[in-house]
Design goal:
- The complex is a heterodimer of chains A (about 150) and B (about 150).
- Chain A is α+β, with helices and mostly antiparallel strands and about 150 residues long.
- Helix content of chain A is about 15%, strand content about 40%.
- Chain A has one domain.
- The two termini of chain A are about 20 Å apart.
- In chain B, strands 1-2-3-6 form a four-stranded antiparallel beta sheet, with no helix packed on it. In chain B, strands 4-5 form a two-stranded antiparallel ribbon.
- Classes of the chains: A alpha+beta (about 150), B alpha+beta (about 150).
């Protein structure tokens, strides 16, 4: 697939599934694959027990993330209306989960080779249920490909 | 131990959470999030939580938190393997390889890492839950619980 075709694919998905709401892009429906473009990064952060609250004792962690150009959100129902700000956070950083073998299909090796580059990540978005899922929304990745510069006309 | 008639309310103050019961008695839990929030799975929300503490759900009791973790495992993660599920609870860290950890955990309950959560027996699931709680820091040293009797 060429670079320009990639962009058409991404834009088509964006146009179908995006709603602008309060300065963030709401992606829907959930439970279907989406393709999002951004910078692929290996991020260093903090794990249990404080997930950043107590950096001296929290485990240093490393995770794959897609840095998006815009803030996104998913359709979300908070457990109680007063907790909407915490339960339905938007994000510009998506943690990326690669499936374990055999479904992994070399995805993590691909990611290592494309670290720091603009990529298109395809997969299913989920709202995080645990603090171990570091970002408010994450993607279970099924495909990863580099964004190639569009040829000049 | 007598059961409380209804849920307490929770108020957060720094690294402490005070639970106030309908009879006016209070329990203050201080320390790590999983301990002070009665949330051994470090869940963000759901399953009848009673508050929020910096993004972590607060549960009314340890039992409620353990049940919430169990419901999350047998709900959202039912069709996930032990290996993939552990990535959600034990992010990769220096000296903490979730793949190795999942392998050790699977071995402890006598199944391969490719086993789906839905295939675990209740005893295996309980073992799994308590190992997650330990991994999340429920048992960290320095955690304290303080009781204040109801006003006379």
């Amino acid at each position: 697939m060429t670079g320009s075709r990639n962009w058409v694919f991404v834009l088509a998905i964006m146009l179908c599934w995006m709603l602008r709401a309060g300065g963030q892009t709401v992606l829907e429906p959930v439970n279907q694959e989406v393709a999002l473009a951004g910078e692929l990064r290996e991020v260093h952060g903090y794990g249990a027990p404080g997930y950043g609250e107590t950096p001296k004792v929290d485990a240093p962690i490393t995770y794959w993330a897609l840095e998006l150009p815009n803030t996104i959100n998913t359709v979300c129902t908070p457990e109680k209306p007063q907790w909407e700000a915490e339960d339905c956070k938007a994000t510009k950083r998506l943690e990326l989960f690669f499936p374990s073998l055999p479904a992994n299909n070399g995805l993590e090796l691909k990611a290592k080779a494309m670290k720091g580059q603009r990529v298109i990540a395809t997969g299913i978005l989920h709202r995080s249920d645990t603090m171990g899922e570091i970002t408010p929304i994450y993607m279970n990745v099924t495909a990863l490909q580099p964004v190639q510069a569009s040829p000049k006309p | 131990m007598a059961q409380q008639q209804s849920n307490p309310t929770a108020s957060v103050n720094g690294q402490s959470v005070t639970y106030t019961y309908p009879d006016g008695s209070k329990v203050t839990l201080s320390g790590t999030h999983p301990f002070r929030d009665n949330n051994p799975g470090d869940l963000r929300s759901g399953h009848g939580s009673i508050g929020r503490d910096g993004g972590f759900a607060i549960y009314s009791s340890l039992d409620a938190g353990v049940n919430a973790l169990g419901a999350t495992l047998t709900g959202k993660y039912a069709n996930s393997t032990i290996s993939d599920t552990m990535k959600a609870f034990a992010p990769a860290a220096d000296g903490n390889d979730p793949v190795k950890y999942a392998a050790a955990l699977a071995s402890a309950v006598g199944v391969p890492v490719s086993t789906k959560i839905s295939a675990l027996t209740p005893a295996q699931l309980m073992t799994f839950q308590y190992n997650i709680a330990i991994k999340e820091g429920y048992n960290a040293s320095g955690n304290t619980a303080t009781y204040v009797a109801p006003p006379q």
